[in-house]
Structures are given as C-alpha cells and as structure tokens.
C-alpha cells in the first residue's frame, strides 16, 4: 500500500547512519528523517520542564502540545532553534531514557511517518526498519565497535572546538546502547530483512558504495 519508497538506516550511536542517510537522500533527491533528532527535541522539552524522565504518562501527554519542526537546516522546538542544544551527551542520555517508554514512542509515531513523502524517504534511527517503516524497500543496519564509535564522536566534538575524554565517551555510548537494546519496546536490533554493514574499518565513501550496490 505504501507507494512512496522508503530506505531505512538503523544502528547504534556513531555507526555513521546520519552521514550515509544524508549522502543517500542527496543522491536520490529524497526527503530525510533524522528520527533521533525528534526524540532528542522531545527529551530537551522534558528537561526544560524539569519533568521526571520516568513519568511515562506526563511525558507522553506533553508530546502532542510540542511544536517540533525541521527547516532551514535547523531543529526547532516551539519556534526556537535547538540544533546545538539537542546534540550534547546530557540530552542524548535523557533521550534514551524517555525513548524506552512505550507511550512516548507511540506519541511520536505519526510525526515520524508524516515524513514519507514523494519522491521518497531515507529514514535514520533505531527502529525505522522494524517498527516505523516495516514495509521499507531497502533496510540497512550499520554497526561498529564502541571504541571506534567513541573515537568518531571525539573527533566530531573536537571539530566543534569541544573536548571530552575518550573513556567517558565509550562509557556513555555503551550505557546508551545497552538502554536502547534492552528496552522491551522497539529495541535496537536489525530487522530480519536488513543488510548488515560493519563500518569499523570503512570510511564513509566505502560504506556509501556498499549501500549503493545494494539498492542498484
Ligand atoms: O548518525 P550516527 O550517530 O550513526 O553517526 P554519524 O553522525 O553519521 O557519524 C559519526 C561520525 O563518524 C561522523 O563524524 C562521520 O563523519 C564519522 N564516520 C566515519 O568516520 N566513518 C564512517 N564510515 C562513517 C562515519
Ligand atoms: O546520533 P546518535 O546515533 O548518537 O543518536 P540519535 O540517532 O540522535 O538518537 C538519540 C537517542 O534517541 C538514541 O540513543 C535512542 O535512545 C533514541 N532513538 C530511538 O529510540 N529511536 C529512534 N528511531 C531514534 C533514536
């Protein structure tokens, strides 16, 4: 029934999903969904309101009243640019907490599916191929060792003039992966029909070439 084609790219933090999703969406001229950014904006709203990050009912009730938008290359919450704020590890950690709550995930489903628009969509996240777009035309699952993913994050931070300790980043990433993979609803795992790519020893061009070969 889904006439607009979808390609999903799932996997843990720092596997290279966003990079590949962006390259692919550009190449195909398709829309892009950064579902993690949606969860991050919702988590930021919860932090701003000082809500209990385990209070599922209150968190889920907050979501429909939020104005979450992506335009001009920025993420917006209720008319304010929050692109930078949603990227820090504090927000990431809050994000994986609220993302474990089924009512929160259900409240964000419709917004995510609304990105499926002509001529096509490249969707990046944890459960794009398993839950949000189970009928996707192509599904990819990117992974890499936690050390490599933490090193990539460190490099990203240093390019932004920020610093962090590699051991802290490895710890943060492992804690978040553990939370994402062990939750009962939409856990981080490859769809049965996903193509698995270990990006540990591949640069982005090499990963992109593998992806293009599969969709050709
Ligand atoms: O979206 P996700 O958290 O999965 O990862 P990303 O933000 O696309 O990539 C994290 C960082 O790793 C970026 O700085 C990429 O340029 C880099 N990267 C890499 O070094 N090698 C790859 N094969 C893919 C990404
Ligand atoms: O960029 P990175 O891969 O580190 O994270 P992200 O894609 O921005 O996602 C941040 C957090 O949101 C993840 O650790 C998950 O807890 C949650 N998330 C999710 O539960 N489902 C998604 N489809 C996307 C993100």
TrEMBL record:
Q: Where does ATP bind?
A: 11-19
- Catalyses which reaction? CMP + ATP = CDP + ADP; dCMP + ATP = dCDP + ADP
Q: What is this protein called?
A: Cytidylate kinase
Major place of localization? cytoplasm
The record's GO molecular-function terms, alphabetically, read:
ATP binding; CMP kinase activity; dCMP kinase activity
- Report any Pfam family annotated for this entry: Cytidylate_kin
Q: Where is the protein localized? A: Cytoplasm
Family assignment from sequence similarity: Belongs to the cytidylate kinase family. Type 1 subfamily.
- Provide the species name: Thiothrix nivea (strain ATCC 35100 / DSM 5205 / JP2)
What CDD domains would the database entry show? CMPK (cd02020)
Q: Does the keyword Oxidoreductase apply?
A: no
Q: Which SUPFAM superfamilies match?
A: P-loop containing nucleoside triphosphate hydrolases (SSF52540)
Enzyme Commission (EC) number = 2.7.4.25
Keyword flag ATP-binding = yes
Task: List where the protein spans the membrane.
Answer: none
PANTHER family xrefs: CYTIDYLATE KINASE, CYTIDYLATE KINASE/PANTOATE-BETA-ALANINE LIGASE
CC terms in the record's Gene Ontology section: cytosol
**EC class (word):** transferase
List keywords of the entry alphabetically. ATP-binding, Cytoplasm, Kinase, Nucleotide-binding, Transferase
Gene name, Swiss-Prot/TrEMBL: cmk
